[in-house]
Design a protein that fits this description.
single chain, 292 residues, alpha+beta, Rossmann fold, Lipocalin, 2 domains, seven-stranded mixed β-sheet, 16 strands, 21% helix, binds S-adenosylmethionine
Length: 292
């Protein structure tokens, strides 16, 4: 393809709506759709980069991974402005080389690295923050990977597209002229997620005697879009109410023998523990995982 034609084509790609872009057959093999195709390189406008990094509340001890890092801007800005370290995963090797040069020219080569790799083949376990601007068709496949590999409390900020079916902890919307170039609209959505503690399974719960005299078994079912639980107390099965887990904090309520008790606690490697709150008073509760 003549150089001018190629430039025009790339310009058209950048101006087309991200979700509706189709790859022309004659682009390089690396640009052809695959099952892990998160879309072409369309850079996040700088003003949105600012908002994404603010929303993630980046600290110097964070390690920021950008999934499909394009020209490296999110990772480089996180290092430059917040003193974080970062990793860009990008399948297009020429963008990786470009990002490495950018980082070196800003004296950040010791804080950030860029890897030419499909993001599905890379481990995310060292990340404390994930940023991304990828096509929505990738999200359902990405959710189990993020939930399995990221540490509890890791934050994720996704530009425009939700990690379906995981409900976002926070959604921020705003208008910006810079978005017109990309999808013909000024509207922008940022979706924020915190990786919750893993609480699915069966637990032995010890509650204050005013809640229940018998031992309690908790059975918790946790998926990206659902968190439900049942308390088995003697012969009775009772649904837990309003079960939520944010980072390492759990909250749920239990109605038993006419009394509603709220449980608020922390989750760590040893189990869960915290305080109960009920009209009759409160006390300490603990829960340990049951083997098997
Ligand atoms: C819309 S651009 C976003 C670039 C950058 N994150 C930003 O926000 O400016 C998406 C990038 O993801 C890359 N990409 C898509 N699927 C990928 C995959 N499976 N593994 C690695 N990179 C991928 C593309 O090559 C492209 O550079």
């Amino acid at each position: 393809m003549r150089r001018a034609n190629r430039r025009r084509l790339l310009g058209a790609l950048a101006a087309a709506p991200l979700a509706s872009l189709a790859y022309p057959r004659h682009l390089r093999a690396a640009d052809q759709p695959t099952t892990s195709d998160g879309g072409p390189f369309v850079p996040t406008p700088w003003v949105i980069v600012d908002e994404m990094l603010k929303l993630a509340e980046i600290k110097p001890n964070d390690v920021v991974f950008d999934l499909g890092s394009g020209d490296g801007r999110l990772v480089i800005e996180a290092a430059k402005r917040y003193g974080a370290r970062g990793v860009g995963l990008e399948r297009d090797a020429s963008l990786v080389v470009y990002s490495q040069k950018q980082a070196a020219s800003q004296d950040l080569a010791d804080r950030v690295k860029f890897v030419a790799r499909d993001l599905f083949d890379a481990s995310l376990q060292d990340a404390s923050v994930i940023t991304m601007y990828l096509l929505p068709r990738l999200m359902p496949r990405l959710v189990p990977k993020l939930r399995a590999e990221l540490p509890v409390g890791a934050r994720i900020v996704s530009h425009d597209y939700a990690l379906t079916p995981w409900p976002a902890d926070k959604t921020v919307t705003f208008d910006t002229e810079e978005k017109l170039m990309i999808n013909g609209m000024t509207h922008t959505t940022l979706l924020y997620y915190v990786v919750p503690a893993r609480v699915g399974g069966t637990w032995s719960l010890t509650a204050p005697p005013d809640v229940a005299k018998e031992p309690i078994i908790l059975v918790i079912d946790q998926t990206p879009d659902r968190l439900t639980g049942t308390a088995i107390i003697g012969e009775h099965d009772t649904q837990l109410r309003d079960v939520t887990v944010r980072s390492d904090t759990i909250r749920f309520s239990l109605l038993y023998s006419g009394q509603l008790t709220e449980f608020l606690g922390k989750i760590d490697d040893s189990g869960m523990q915290g305080e109960t709150r009920a009209r009759a008073g409160g006390g300490r509760w603990t829960a340990r995982r049951r083997p098997g």
